[in-house]
From TrEMBL:
Keywords: Membrane, Transmembrane, Transmembrane helix. Signal peptide: none annotated. The keyword Membrane applies. The chain crosses the membrane at residues 203-232, 397-416. This is Uncharacterized protein. It comes from the Eukaryota. The lineage of its organism: Eukaryota, Fungi, Dikarya, Ascomycota, Pezizomycotina. Residues 256-283, 299-321, 479-499 are annotated as: Disordered.
Amino acid sequence: MTSIFFGPAPQSGPVTFLHRTAPAINMSQETTGRGVVYEDLHPVNHPINDPIEQRQSQTLTTQTATSTQAAQNLTEEATASHALAQADHDEKGVAQLSHNAEVKDLGWNEPPSKIPAPLVGGMDNEELWVLVRRFNKQMYHVKEYPYPVPGNLDLNIADEDEFSPDKLRATIERLYMTVGLGMMGFIKQVGRLRSWRERNRTAYFAAAYFVAWLLDMLVPLFTVTLVVLIVYPPSRDVMFPPAPLALVDAKTGGVQKPKAGVLGSTDTATGAPEKHKGEAAEAEASNFVNSIASVALASASGKHPQTEPPPGQAGVADSIPDPTAIAMSASTAKTSAEGKAAAPTHDKTKVPMETAMWSKMRPIMHGLADVADTWERFANALSPTPPFPRELYRLRLAAVVVPLVAVSLLTSAYMFTKGVTFGIGFGFFGDPVIQPGLRWLNRTFPHWQKLLEIRNTLLKGVPTNAQLTITVLRIGEANKAPLPPPPHSKDPPPDQPVEITDEHLRATGADWPLNATQEELDEAMAHDPTTAHETAGADIDHSKDSKHGKKGHKLISFFKSTVKGTVETTLGADRLKAKAGSEPSKQRLGAVPKTKDYNIDGPVDFACRFHGKKGHTIISTKTAIPYVAFTLDKKVADQGSIGREEELHPVWTVPVADIKELKKVGGLGWKAKLVVGWALDREVADGMEIVSKTGEVFTITALPLRDELFNRLIAMGGQKWEAW
């Protein structure tokens, strides 16, 4: 049994707010309402016995509290991230300035042009929104981590990270945006050097290489160059001048027409246009995964020209949709149709192969995430982003490389070759020595592998992009100025070339960028609608196209309208079932909002539902102990909750410090969400679970600004989080 007291304040003293897992806390009279108690508040995914209205009339009780050892707020500086959020930085943004308001609204419902800049010192608003947008897609589920964190930074990925296909997709997209685009940039820089188009720069590189080769100084040359690139960032643009990825031909090193037909962005492989920085790269990553899935599906279904009838003789095939386009797995049907195998129920390899593949998915996903994390850490070490130190990590990397210069000067090629070949032989034949040594290490130093991980040694304290993002979010919360969410726009970006400056395209010395004239550059960057459809041949065209035929399109349209009617009927039935007391139906109410005008919420009040009842989740930071609560007060939509705390009578209240777990949940099942999105062309409002330290689960649903509420809650308290 749990009691949460929210009682009236005596005129002569403070009000007592008691919770089972926290010490007695004093709250000011301004933030309390009339006496309300909520006993036996069941987790919302369980059937409930009492309606919400009845809980608001129960008698006041109190219970003894037990203390916890976890940090209760940001000021306790549980990690370096918490400390940086509290630090007084020399370069400040609007969110870091002092103010007298309880919560300062920096433009949550304003267009980007009206949001003050910069929000955080040393960071452009567009760069900040890129981080937050990708953070929203990466973070699904976090739990409080009560132990010391690696590198003194929380929000590391748990070793037991839960696997889901959607999370695997997000990981692959993240890998594309980090490692994929980074490797493309490296390959195109090599192509520019080898092409001799920028003659002076290539000549300098060639002269330095061959002189060092003659003097047997290649390794010292490479290590010294690496040290210079690490320690002195301006040298990077001199040695490797920037150029838009999509504008450079990797084979010739010269100018090419971007695959999108226009140079609308500078950091993408296709050059597709974007309305906000980073959106084109994110769309590219999504389509990269879609294309892999499409090719795999086409391969599984046996799509091949030999199975297609001659042109003009399609007959019934013209009325049948392409199975790859409607995303059906046709591998079994293909096998049965060809008569080359036994019935699927007699296939003895199916179950073990499927089991083996799905069992390996979690370690594969975790490995991909580790690769992306390491790449991001190196990037943030070489080019630190405030509020993290600008020089510390670069100097540490250089300190590791500098000794290699001395070693390379004292080591001959013969000694190097002998050492490498000995290492190969020892690794191959030295198992009788290696295995006992490993057993001794495991026995003497448990978890020694963790201590030697690069994030705990060379890159200790260097954040991933997710850790950088939560630090920036904590800066806003520490100053009671929550950062506005990334702007959203349904309008397509214009097919206009992006403005190119020296920051995006330049050459070294007297060379022309890419050895191209201004007219050639303008022609390559200008919009050409036919370029995006060009392929490498007719066979690629045939395999890529999804042909439905005229009758096939009509069939799909009819099927879509039928599904739309079914979905609307089901949603209507849910409302009736919810009134009859069906808990699953209550959880689905409002999941498909009729309107998209929900941007009036935040940063304090968030429209949502609890057990199907319309209300608002509110966050209060006016007291010493910030808390999150749910209220049914209808006036919140128009008047807000600030200054009206006594009138709200919350259904439940949880101190932010007592939250031990946050999890994003779907408003509908994933299959239903796909069907609703396809048939109704409407967004689905998802939900979130808040788990307290007593184990109570509060599930709020139909929450359009779920990501924004999630971000505020994980950034407000002193918890050390772990990503699941």
